[in-house]
Amino acid sequence: MKINAAELLAVAVQASQYPREGPPEIAFAGRSNVGKSSLLNLLTGRKALARVSGSPGKTRTINFYGVNGDTFRIVDLPGYGYAKVSKSVSATWGDMTEKYLLNRTTLRKIVLLCDIRREPSAQDVQMYEWMRHYGMDGLIACTKADKVKRSALGRSVDAVRSGLGAGPDAKVVPVSALKKTGVGELLAEIGKVIDTHERDKR
Ligand SMILES: Nc1nc2c(ncn2[C@@H]2O[C@H](COP(=O)(O)OP(=O)(O)OP(=O)(O)O)[C@@H](O)[C@H]2O)c(=O)[nH]1
Ligand SMILES: [Mg+2]
User: What does the pLDDT look like over 101-115, one tens digit per residue?
Assistant: First the structure.
């Protein structure tokens, strides 16, 4: 699968702002600053499609991107676990994200992003369990793969897998937005998801 075009379709904080349900959607979830927006830019080959920032908590909205003439969509979710926002703001984010994840019938898969250098957090584990509950587990991207030596890559990937409690069948793909690696493998996985039959309405 190749991405040759991508455009921002909608920026939403509530369901009325979502684009109309249509093509299958793949959502990117993960803690704040893990590299969701950077990965989106990497996959789409568009340096500045999604805003990237050194300060966590950049993406505070649900951003829908139409890919290849809106044949499928990538949905950049707000990051969780950013300590510096107030409890009420962080509850709103959680609420907003949960509503999307629970109600979106065209959501096909969630890609969980984890920093390759870090032990998955309690929230990462919670997210993965949630994904499993809804049958959307099994695809994990380990971001910032450029930060570990090539020789340690396998070990780091295994640590993320076991930290999340992911089974041997889960695909764990190391990616680096900096070195532009992992794109082919991740896109191949996304392609498989899109090709499979329409998910049942929940
Ligand atoms: N070394 C390295 N840094 C990266 C990589 N991907 C992202 N970063 C850096 O990590 C920081 C956060 O990246 P973002 O893409 O904004 O992260 P995000 O998950 O979208 O963050 P929120 O929008 O806050 O949830 C930025 O400083 C990026 O430059 C990578 O593959 N390698
Ligand atoms: Mg972001």
Answer: 999 999 999 999 999
